[in-house]
Amino acid sequence: MKYLRNFVLLKRIFSNQNLKDKLAKPETIEEYYANRPFLSAAEVDRNAAHFNIFRIGDPDIEDIQVPFGRKDYFKICIITGNNRIHYADKTFEVCEHGLLFANPQIPYNWEPLTPNQQGFSCIFNEAFFERFGRIKEYPVFKPGGFPVYELTTEELSTIKAIFEQILNEKNGQFEFKDDAIRTLVLQLIHSAIKMRPAINTVPEKVTAASRITSLFLELLERQFPLESASSEIQLRSASDFANQMAVHVNHLNKSVKEVTAKTTSEIIMQRLLQEAKIMLKHTSWPISDIAYALGFEGPTHFSTFIKRQLQLSPSQYRNT
């Protein structure tokens, strides 16, 4: 079994160099502009603060289809029109007015279903909010948050007005316009959260249990995305995480249960299932590669896991 596993790993590394997985390398801000020559932007330094906003539907600006995948920047979009949003392992259909919050951790794309889309799109990197709030801590940007909103006409008016203010500040000459833009972006986030408070996020109250749970969740998320078909997660069991965190596994399990009402193993398996669904649906990796990359002993164990969770085999899920 060990030699077979090593052979499979070598085959995955060397066999198909033309297989470029859409999840492997996030799109950078530089690539964002390179793929959209109709957008004007100053020289972009990925290590420097960057923010930009565009009006969707402007006749001088033609958007392009973006392949499903991760992006190396944050994005907030509001669009009027019928759209389908593929976000991680879920698909949302927006009938009229949609608001999307996207972060570098989660792969996504926005698929327009009707012509003449209207709205706004703003992109920014984490450096833009350095020492100005905790942008990554907001539920709309966390894996357990709620990133897609179907807006009512009244909500659309409120959110659209904020985007208009952001655009005016961006085009203005105010000395502190970046701070004004940051404030408006936070107002945008706060407005969305107040509309429909997020669920399934770790409480903000700081306790020993919440600190341990936050570290556990951070270590779990840090393993994704898998860079290539030859990658393999290193932390897969509660004991693996406990050893990495230098705590007793019983203490880890008790803390996680107290904060999330779920067991450590349940959270790990749910995250593995989410990543498995993403890779089955949006990559052409062989099922055996996905199985080994996610730490399963082999395709049979992986298939059993998927069937138990989805009542479908991996190939059936991929085909549907």
UniProtKB/TrEMBL annotation:
Keyword Phosphoprotein among record annotations: no
Name the UniProt record assigns to this protein: Helix-turn-helix transcriptional regulator
InterPro entries (alphabetical): Homeodomain-like_sf, HTH_AraC
GO MF terms, alphabetically ordered: DNA-binding transcription factor activity; sequence-specific DNA binding
Start and end residues of each HTH araC/xylS-type domain: 210-320
Species of origin: Xanthocytophaga agilis
Record SUPFAM superfamilies: Homeodomain-like
Parts forming coiled coils: none
Highest rank taxon of the organism: Bacteria
Gene3D superfamilies associated with the record: Homeodomain-like
Keywords: DNA-binding, Transcription, Transcription regulation
